[in-house]
Amino acid sequence: MATPGVSQAVNDLGATGATTAQHPSPSQSQNPPTRKRDKAQLSCTFCRRSKLRCDRQQPCSTCSDRSLSSSCEYVQSRRAKSGKDVRSGSPQSSSVNVQDKINQLEGLVVSLIRTMKGDAPPGVNGHAGAAASANIRTMSSSELRTESLDLDHDPQIMDTFGRISLENSETSYVDGGHWKAILDGIAELKDHFEDTTQQPSHPENNTASESGVPELLLGNNRRISKHELLAAVPPRPAVDRLISRFFNTMDMAPVVVHGPTFLDEYELFWMDPSEASVIWLGLLFSMMCIAAQFQRLCGDESMVVSQPQQGSQNLKLEEKLYREKTVQCLVLGNYTTCFPHTLETLILYFTGELFRCEDTQTGTWILLGVIVRLAMRRGYHRDPKHSPQITLFHGEMQRRIWATIVQLDLVISSQIGLPRMIKDGEYDTAEPRNLLDNDFGKGTTDFGPPRADADLSPLVNCNTKNKVLAAFGAIVDQNASTQPCSYNRILQLDQKLREAHAVIPSGLRMRPLAKSVTDQPHVIIWRIYLDLIFHQARCVLHRKYLLLSSSNPQYFYSRQSCIEAALQILHHQSTLNQETQPGGRLCNDRWRLSSLINHDFLLAATILCLALDSGLTTENEQNGSDQSSQRDQIIIALTESYAIFMDTRKSSREAQKVAQAINIILQKVRKSSSTQSLPATSESTEFRNGYGALSTPRGKCYSAAIEQPGLFPVGPPSFATSPQPTGSVSESYGLPTGTSIFDWNLWNSQLQVPFMQSLLEPEDNDLEMFEDTF
Length: 774
Fold this sequence. Notes:
Blueprint: H1 4-22, H2 26-29, H3 45-50, H4 61-65, H5 78-87, H6 91-117, H7 129-135, H8 141-148, H9 155-158, E1 163-167, E2 170-174, H10 179-184, H11 187-195, H12 215-218, H13 226-231, H14 236-249, H15 253-256, H16 259-271, H17 278-298, H18 312-332, H19 342-354, H20 362-377, H21 392-416, H22 458-480, H23 487-502, H24 521-542, H25 556-579, H26 595-615, H27 619-622, H28 625-647, H29 653-674, H30 685-692, H31 729-733, H32 744-751, H33 754-759
Helix pairs in contact: 1-6, 14-17, 17-18, 17-19, 18-19, 19-20, 20-21, 21-22, 22-23, 22-24, 23-24, 24-25, 24-26, 25-26, 25-28, 26-28, 26-29, 28-29
């Protein structure tokens, strides 16, 4: 027998649904202003996106021929459809609102039933959602786990299919945690990129297109003899300089190549070059290629082999030559048989391909798949202790190489937006020992004790990074899973991630740059990379609960964790951008800013765009100082990030696309702010001096507050109490709280550029010219 409270709730449910259906809300009945064109879309969706001729039948012949009849759909122009919905009472829009109300009331009914049974969590009831939000900070973890059981099958959480793009007859997929899928979650941005007419891009006008699929996969190089390869090796003095540059610049070198052993082989090569194997020649060329690439990226023209007066252009030609010879050596040596030095050569060749472009390239992920399969074919996924015939030296080098491959698999797959290839439980290879190259060699019969983690070596960095990546990998696997996940599982993964972060050696823990004066630049980079991995994992883990927190206070912790992590990532973007400028402390290490690092910045920027866009609809309702100050921090972080992305837009289509998205969201915020009564801040000395001063010739808005690392406490949450948000983001940045401290007059006068204005005119500037790459 139903209790009176439950019956009343059910009656309220029916009454609310009927009322909503008969009387649409003001937001439904109003036709929002839009700048989109009114031209009707006559072709079906598939034909329009694929630029194919459509006969306008239902289904059309194009879709029928491709067995896509069920998905052949036609859409009306935006204004026509909006007007039709208003005239007809907008049944579809009303049904969506009815469903939202039903979901909300169902939750209230469940809470009421628990109250009747006496097991409801304290502070949560069916009558006051605001009270539940206020008490979320005091809920225990056991109460959170009880609540999470009812959320295993939340359709809004399970709807994380990802994003499938059908453009130019090419199909591509990314998971729901990828920044491209997050952009699709912002309706205005999705419409902005989809409704404009697509134009073919012009590769000759965009340097990013110069680096396509890895040459090894295409087979474009002609097959040559070993004699021709030997003839392509420069004189020894030139090679010596390049090899020295490789070992002294690339901190990854000891993890892949054993320095003393290579030098012995190097001397033997110059004594009799014809005795060297073709694959070893490929290893030599790959080192020279990376060295020339790093010189070019750092602007160092002092070691150009020929015609130094031509500078970087010659470096680029030499880099291309050495890459071509590496590929020819791999092909001539039949790399699929995986002779000695094959994996080392492939990994270095992969590294060179990775640094060729600032944007994500699917070809590098495919190339990594070849490396993974060859490594497994050689048994690198099983610890050498199982094979007595493997020497201690070769076993230790196998551990180093396998650790590198596992690391690359996770970060590259995350960048691509696809599941990783190497899963936990499929390998048992132990982590490599913390030994320097001089600590062991081919004749080693017994390893002494490894060095302490306090001795910061490339192996300490590699092992520490893989420990954090192990926690990140569990998050990536859960994110890629098709099975539902309870919120309790999310909190467990969060705890595991924080525990991995807590055991980072003190020498590799993030610290302010002001306290790193005596540290070497590569150690500073190591710290930033580790912190980026940690915060990227937080974003991926909590991203799907970001918007749900507005209707369910249980997810407030996820919302705060996601936003704070994204803000910290953009803080690192600002730091790296400043310190890699000429004269900066990391100027000679700017070659390290690959597309992998840029992916983290793209992810953080899109998450903050989503948070800021969704916050516009709830700000008037909550209007709390914490939310307003956090909104200000997001605006400032996005403004800084926008300026950085604008600087790289010519060489990165991904940066250009996210810059467009940031601009659209900030313009929307500006219009929203102009309609509210806000205190005038244009004359605020605190804002101009602290946050608005243009401190560099490039015109970026560098915040004094952003200069302070360690913005957010990252202590592991205790499961004896509820995970606590790290506090006000405004306080973490050291900014004043209040309704709004952002100066839109400064934004208009100093940060807007003609290019940004053109983005608001889709009729004149077709934005989908870049869509064919996403």
